[in-house]
Write a structure and sequence with these properties.
Elements lengths: L1 H21 L2 H19 L4 H17 L1 H6 L7 H4 L4 H36 L13 H29 L14 H17 L1
Helix pairs in contact: 1-7, 2-3, 3-7, 6-7
């Protein structure tokens, strides 16, 4: 288990570094979008390449930072229902969810996106819009994003099993409670109180 936890720490460090660096591309997308809008309004000129670049930058952040979202425990779940269960049950739900849903989905996406990207790369696929960008770099983001998500899913699975075995403290146990989570806990407490 110590070796697996070491692997998990390496994956987490890589994910964190990628996420923090690539999150700056949100600013780049805003600058590109604003510049393109100003040029279009002032000079009545535009470029499909600049428009497509906005979408590529968004795709980079969305796909390549999804593993960072998982690491930060900010992925979507039904928190109100999840909070009703004891911690042991929530841990089991996480393990089952990773083993039966997250990891198989990432494998399917990796297997299917690889030929999708390779075909595009081999023919040097270009945009159908005049002056647009090549398409294969954008298509590679799907493959790269799901590879990163697969490894982060493995890391989260290792950590959750280690938490259940008592080997490590819950990395998300001391997470700051947001206003929404606090409100959800208040509503659950009221429901439990009224049920008595």
């Amino acid at each position: 288990m110590n070796t697996l936890l070491g692997v998990s720490r390496v994956i987490d460090a890589i994910t964190l570094r990628i996420g923090k660096w690539l999150s700056w591309l949100i600013l780049a997308a805003v600058v590109v979008s604003a510049t393109n809008a100003v040029i279009r309004k002032l000079f009545d000129a535009s470029s499909n390449a600049w428009l497509e670049l906005q979408w590529v930058l968004f795709g980079i952040v969305f796909l390549l930072c999804s593993s960072w979202t998982l690491l930060a425990n900010e992925h979507i779940r039904i928190d109100i229902v999840n909070a009703l269960f004891p911690k042991r049950v929530r841990d089991m739900i996480d393990v089952i969810g990773h083993v039966l849903f997250l990891l198989p989905l990432t494998i399917v996406m990796i297997v299917t996106s690889y030929p999708f990207f390779v075909r595009s790369f081999v023919i040097n696929e270009q945009s159908m819009n005049a002056g647009g960008l090549p398409q294969w770099p954008a298509k590679s983001l799907i493959l790269i994003g799901f590879v990163l998500l697969f490894f982060q899913g493995l890391s989260e699975l290792i950590k959750r099993i280690a938490v259940m075995m008592g080997r490590i403290p819950d990395p998300h146990g001391g997470v700051h409670v947001t206003a929404v989570e606090a409100e959800a806990e208040r509503i659950i407490a009221e429901i439990k109180h009224e049920a008595r």
